[in-house]
Amino acid sequence: MKRSDPVQLRLVAVVEEAQVITQRIRDLQSQAKEAIGPKNAPQGIPMDSSALFAGRILSIREFVNPFTGIPLWRVELDISGFNLDVLVRKDKCTGTPQPGFYLSGIVWLIGDLLPSEASAAAEYIG
User: Fold this and answer.
1) Nearest CA-CA partner of 98 in 82, 72, 77, 81
2) Cα(55)–Cα(5) distance, rounded to whole angstroms?
3) I need a surface site. Which of 46, 78, 83, 125 has the fewest CB within 10 A?
């Protein structure tokens, strides 16, 4: 794989804690922007995989973890044009997510850079 080859980012996002924000509350806090960034970054260097986030809810699906029985929401967020699916434990979220509302909180992120379809035969060095 060469530096100029296109890559895909596969991202897993699991919410540690979240808060649903209605449009009315969002309008009162217009200075707050949709964003995602490191939670713990002294001198600009992230120290772990936790991030603070805030984004507009695009869609929600409910399901139950088949291994633990824990009820979850899979929430699709728009974070300033970046779409991100996050898994949210219902017991770790204040409020009930709805499309058009906002979700903010702390998310655990892990990602892989993978060769794109065009360079799938190339060896991935990680």
Assistant:
1) 77
2) 30
3) 125
Tracing tokens 């919410």 back to the chain, one arrives at 15
Determine the distance from the C-alpha atom of residue 97 to the mean position of all C-alpha atoms in its chain, rounded to a whole number: 14
What is the pTM for the complete model shown? Answer: 0.78
Q: Token digits for 13? A: 């996002």
pLDDT in tens, 35-62: 888 888 777 787 888 899 999 999 999 9
Q: How far apart are CA 102 and CA 87, in angstroms?
A: 15
Those residues whose C-beta lies under 8 Å from the C-beta of residue 73, and which sit 6 or more positions away, are 60, 61, 62, 87, 88, 90, 93, 97
Distance CA 90, CA 66 (A): 15
Q: What is the domain partition of the chain in residue ranges?
A: 11-111
